[in-house]
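Ticket reopened. Same input as before:
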Amino acid sequence: MEQLQEIDNDKIITRNESPRSKQRRDIVYKILANKSAIVGGVLILFILIIAIFGPLIAPYDPVAQDMVNKLQPPSSEHWLGTDHFGRDILSRLIHGASITLLVGFLSVALGATVGVFLGIISGYYGKRTDSIIMRFMDILLAFPGILLALAIVSVLGGSLLNVIIAVAISSIPIFARIVRSSTLSVKKLEYIDAMRALGASDRRIIFKHIFPNVTSPLIVQATLSIATAIISASGLSFLGLGAQPPTPDWGAMLSDGRNFLYNAPHVALFPGIAIVIVVVAFNLLGDGLRDVFDPKTKD
Amino acid sequence: MVDEQKMLLNVKNLKQYFPIKGGILGRTVNYVKAVDDVSFTVYEGETVSIVGESGCGKSTTGRAILRLDEPTSGNVEFDGADLLSLNKKEMNRMRKHLQIIFQDPYASINPRHTVRQILTEAMEIQNVWPKEKRDEKVIELLETVGLGAHQADRFPHEFSGGQRQRIGIARALSVNPKLIIADEAVSALDVSIQAQVLNLLKKLQRELNLTYLFISHDLGVVRHISDRIIVMYLGKIVEIADKKSLFENPKHPYTKALLSAIPSTDVDNKKERILLKGDVPSPIDPPKGCRFHTRCPFATELCRTEVPELRSSSDTTSDHQVACHHAEAIESGSLQPVVSS
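Engineering reply: fixed in the latest deploy. New output:
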């Protein structure tokens, strides 16, 4: 029987390339077959291109004021109109894209790094370590995300960097929880015991054997968290705690526009739409990835 | 034979209690006494089996010796060193000499690593061979366990259960251990594959002078591989004997019942099946006195109050030890089983 198996394996090997690249290819196929992942992914790619090449595409200088043409409605000259300083809204949106994405990516990267670390430590060591870390996470979770971020920014002072830090801190507990629960289930597997029996250090077990097994839920959560982070960051900017003028930040633009909501609604409308598109795109991609990586939770 | 040999593993009064937490404060309300005061010795080069039904603490004993779960109390002496007194670092260094083979070949190897990575990592952890010789050693190990060099770069999912178990054995061997604890190492395999793996283990023992602590519930397998056998019931050892003596002349009523459950292929020689009544009592609150008294047909008042010590009975050699107050009386027929209808 075993010999038969061997022959079979040999055939498979000669036909295909290495099994790992086959696994990867399978995942890529599944992602490509998932409509919401594709729509979200294409949108994000589009926004990314705009963010990178923005300065080359934008028709006007985003901070150049033109008081004669202030609050102009959309026209052939200014596609999305101008704001109360006569600045071209389209140019400002294009320049703002990179800020928005940067805030989203950086804050999630920062929050996820700390969260993953705490989660793995908590799940792996258990007992008192686990209790202390998770109770601290519970405290963070007890605050609504935006309120927590608001409190942190008020302490640190308003600036883009502080917004990133604040949003990152408020996203730590979600990552810590997800990673902790995955760690708990991976830790029980016999091959972790085998590594311990071989005398592997905790660090080796955590990084080489546990971490690679918790990445799938992590990727999904990170994508979804970027959307939340962008909303939180825009909210903080809207409240005047984020990027300071004249930086073309979408949240701040929305805030500027609210004073002219009656006679020039486009000033607030377009940044609002831009935020919605980005957030929806990340949510679609995140949901799609979840279906691919974790089919069990699919409704 | 045994007396001339060197003592390799000496377990004394090993206890493993798992706390049961309850209430909102998570206080310990009780303990599961998985292993309760177990002592035995394993000599170099022999195969000692621990048998018993599920939940009797045989796997827990194995894990406690390796300190995969920290034992509650007791003494584990290995090759002259007291394992339980070592700190984490010293213990990790010591692990080179004690390895384990697990039951489930599908769960015991990391599915993301190739065979080569798995074996190289084991050598790397214990630093057993110089870096440039490790590749060569991987091939050698694979051939030792009956796999081919061409399979070194494959992933575990490309192997069958038996082949995976061979990978598990190769991993255990990669650090040159003296003692291998085989925790139900063949239970998950098909019978034909079981025989192959058992014969491999036997061959390796001869070639590498290994000592096995073989944990199993399968008496057929145990009979095939063991030199000596330890029978456990509900966290305690009820009988220790060499294979021949145990199978031909079991002393403890539990061992007798266990052995009578082996199906016989001989039609003319029908054995009497000893059927035990009831279930194994809970290890949370084990019976007082002899733990087997609730199911033992010979139980007397003495059994209900006093814990029997492990001792050698009058008509056996000193190597055959049994934990029963009435071993001799049962043997001579002066104590008859109480038959309940």
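DSSP finds twelve helices and no strands in chain A. The CA atoms of residues 115 and 293 of chain A lie 20 Å apart. Please confirm and we'll close it.
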